[in-house]
Amino acid sequence: MIRKAIPGLVLVSLACGGGDRPAPAAAPPPPPPIEASAPAPDAPVSVVRGIAIFEPTMTFRPCNGPIVSLLDSTSNRLRPLIGLVGSTETQGVFVIGGGATSARNELVLREVDYVVRPGPGEGCERPEQEYTIGVRGVDSAWQVMITPGAIDYRDAAGTESIRFPAAAAAEAGGTSTYSSTTEFGASHTIRIVLTPGSCRETRSGAWSPFQASVTLDEKTVQGCAWRGSQR
Length: 231
Hints:
Layout: H1 2-16, E1 46-53, E2 59-62, E3 68-72, H2 78-84, E4 93-101, E5 107-116, E6 133-137, E7 143-146, E8 150-154, E9 161-165, E10 170-172, E11 175-181, E12 189-200, E13 207-216, E14 219-227
Parallel strand pairs: 3-5
Antiparallel strand pairs: 1-2, 1-4, 2-3, 4-5, 6-7, 6-14, 7-8, 8-9, 10-11, 11-12, 12-13, 13-14
């Protein structure tokens, strides 16, 4: 009886012997996913000009380059502006803003400075100018261009242009003020006050992030302002 029981004990012992073996090592966790919207670490934010389209896919067509994929990183500021300026997500909008190129060669739009529906004389059809601040009348076509070297005023008819010496902005209470007086010829003075706030031109429908008050020789008119390419 004892001898017959031994083989059974051996089998039980062999079956249970694996309990002393160490558990297999856990698989390493997978690497974190790469965020497609993140720009390359060294990609600087630069000024961009072009047409942003949301449908059927989000793309950006620069005024001087090939179409690229668009990633809107403006805290959802751009999309509501499409309807505000009278455009559609298929037609798109002309944008001046700041963006960076992602690791996948996509445009990551970070800032929106000017938005208008594409049309004759607007968008990429308008000649590119080098300026720091652009100002246009809310209900008229007069404009002021502020550059590092001068302040240029042009009336609505385009028949009168006045150049003022450059002036640094005086910052106070959230506003920026530029003041200048002509040095040669007829005497003129200009004062430009910029205040952050949504602004829309009634003539073109364009949107800008600054409201402007321009006083030329004691006559004050209202306009909209945006940042240009020289920053």
